[in-house]
Amino acid sequence: MSEPSDVWGLRGLIVAAVFVTVSYFAVRGMAPTGAGVYYDDGVYLALAQSLAEGRGYTYANLPGDIPGIKYPPVYPVVLAGASKLLPAYPDNLSYLKALNALFLGVASALTFLCFVRPRDGLVRQAAFGVAAVLAFTSAQTLSLATVLLSEPLWLAITMAVLLLTERERPVSLLVGFGAAVAFLTRSIGISLIAAVLAAELLRRGAWNGARMKRTAQLAGVTLGPAVAWWTWTTVRLPDVPSVLAGNYGSYTSWFAGVGGSSGSLMDTMAAHWPPLVTALEHLWMPDATALAANVVLAVLAGLALLGLRQVGRRNPALALFPVMYLAIVLVWPYEPDRFYYAIVPLLTMSLVEGGAEIAKRIRSDMPKYGVPVFAVIAGLLLFNSTQYQVSSHRARSWTRFQLAPAVTYRPLLEWIRENVEPDAVVASGLDPLVYWETGRRAVPNFQFLTTDYLDTDDSEVVLARQFEELRDLSGARWVAVIRGEGKAGRTMDAFSARHPERVRVAFEAETGPFTGVVVEVLPPGEEFPALTPPSPQ
Questions:
Q1: Are 146 and 139 in contact (CB under 8 A)?
Q2: Residue 444 in 3-state DSSP?
Q3: CA 344, 346, 351: angle at the middle one, nearest 5?
Q4: CATH topology for the 400-521 domain
Q5: What is the rounded CA–CA span in Å between residue 10 and residue 468?
Q6: How many other C-beta atoms lie within 10 A of the C-beta of residue 224?
Q7: Cβ–Cβ < 8 Å for 115, 352
Q8: What is the pLDDT of residues 410-435, one digit of tens each?
């Protein structure tokens, strides 16, 4: 009679160990950078600031009262609530990042519970515990969890919903509400809504009155908030200036073509496939030859599909969710790496599920030779991945993406604080970072369009015109960019080439391979005095 409690005790112990380990490494992995180094992290905090100060759901970093229709409200609401209990920026930043670390720990524990049942044996529970820690402390996942991005909270909510859907008779209202909250945390949470509704439709059993009522309740609770959010963003879309729509407008309008089409869906899918392979290769086969990596990843993909099939028998929503999530990512015309990093833990757990099923069959069909061979192969993969992750943690490789812009922009931000009027508007490639580190309202100095991903028009005429439109809207006289870097740098290079008489480099600083500049730009019709050569002596 004591076996169930013993098993539950073991499961609870592993859950606690996974939570503590992942949370610890996420806290340990934080870098001393300001808000805005990932762009969205600064925007989330700006929305939270407006909420905390009673200014509504608007972007505090932008001039005017522009509604935050691009970013669903749940994460900014959480940050706003936490901010009321904490010191002002920047003293609150480490605490808010630590909150994200706890969300990641919760997500890892819930993911473990989705794959391990109370009566599973020690070996299976230990294997999934190790897999959860490995996946959630990978360099890819920590790159999202150590800044103020919404993925950790979204993962925690998503995995809680998927855990509830495993019940024979899931609580429809709770599952539906959770799926809606996940969507209102990250727009790609629509994939969870689709998975939950599809799983309910595919659930076995007769379509009697009770089931139809439960399905209707689930659909209503799930889709109601999503429709409300979509309606609000549609109504408020005209309040976002068109030149800011790419950076701060709704996803619906942006995908529909802010500035035109960006190629076919097949073109986008073809461009998105290599980054997915690279993300998985870095986790399992780093530094391998192309042939070896492709062979191993093909086998691992087969195991992951087998794993999804296995979990789908007891929890269809858990199997459908990653498929629907990846389907959206593959057709979305934007750099996919961040989206892949968020799904790596679930793909890893599905892989281990497939490996567990194969191990069971090998143990039954080839107990003499199959089991040791399988153990050796699995051990080598685990060793290879662990070795790479250990080296990543020693080098804190995920912080490079945070430190590079922080270090390069630091002298520019210091100059702006000392030389630019407090009420001035600054244009920049990282306008949220400029806002948080200088206190000046800031706007992007480039227009973010769907065409930028596959077939961007980088002609001087187009880029210069796009900047002129932004300057006319905001009245920005100062621009802080990294010379030649990304569309922000190319835009200023183009504008300077087209209108050299209106541009003056006010400050310049070299940081490693990058050169940061603060440029002063005059309105149309004004010119800086022409430089005259010194008169001969």
A1: no
A2: strand
A3: 90
A4: Rossmann fold (3.40.50)
A5: 63
A6: 13
A7: yes
A8: 999 999 999 999 999 999 999 999 99
DSSP element (H, E) containing 407: helix 400-419
Give the model's pLDDT for residue 382: 78
pLDDT tens per residue across span 287-296 = 667 777 777 7
Pair of tokens at residue 126: 């230990």
Q: What dihedral angle (degrees, nearest 10) is formed by the CA atoms of 228, 234, 236, 238?
A: 180
Grade residue 3 by pLDDT with cuts at 50, 70 and 90: very low
Alpha-helical runs (H) found in 205-249: 209-236, 245-248
Listed in order, the ranges of the chain carrying CATH 3.40.50 are 400-521
Neighbours of 26 (CB within 10 A): 26
Tens-place pLDDT, residues 119-176: 888 889 999 999 999 999 999 999 999 999 999 999 999 999 999 998 755 567 889 9
Quick check: 78 pLDDT over 80? yes
> Chain-centre distance of CA 411, in angstroms?
28
Residue 62 DSSP label? S
Helix (H, G, I), strand (E, B) or coil at 67: strand
- Measured CA to CA, the distance from residue 458 to residue 462 in angstroms comes to 7
Q: Which residues are CB-contacts of 82 (< 8 A; sequence separation ≥ 6)? A: 92, 95, 96, 99
Beta-carbon contacts of 256 under 8 Å, excluding residues fewer than 6 positions away, are: none
Helix (H, G, I), strand (E, B), or coil: what is residue 82?
Answer: helix
